[in-house]
Amino acid sequence: MKLPKSAVLTVTVLCAFVIAIAISTRQPVEEVLQQSNQAVEQAFNQEAKTPNQDLNQLSLFLPNTFEVFEQESNNVILESNGQTYILFHNSLENESSQLNYEAVNEKNDHLLLESFENQGRFGYIYISEADTKSEFQLQIGVGGIKITTITEKSDAATDAKDMMLIANSLIYNDHEE
Question: 10 Å Cβ neighbour count for 17?
Fold first, then answer.
């Protein structure tokens, strides 16, 4: 069966239009990195959110869509909308510790690695390529706390901000259950 030329032309124009729309709405990587960095720095410098989750050894703030999936001695596995976040905490490192930052700096594979200091606290954002071209590996840290996830590039700034809000809010409890 042979299609009329007008049908072939219409399909070709529609395909070109869809491709043009997809290309024009795609954010450049540099813009995503800049937005993520700004979101994290702003969250780092604001007053810590009041914790709304009490766990065995710590309390922390979780945004509405986040929930605790699993908890071990130094790790908390969080989930939000099907995405996994790994929170690692080391109570022997204070909030000015640069240990986690130095570890990612040694990898030398980052697209973005920025640090922040405020009132004796040290924080950072680390972004590197993930296994797929549409994703980043994202790590946010404050002192001895780091949170890592694999995020869609389009969600990087929002995820980075949420992760910093969580890391900023963590308080160690005096008791162990």
Answer: 10
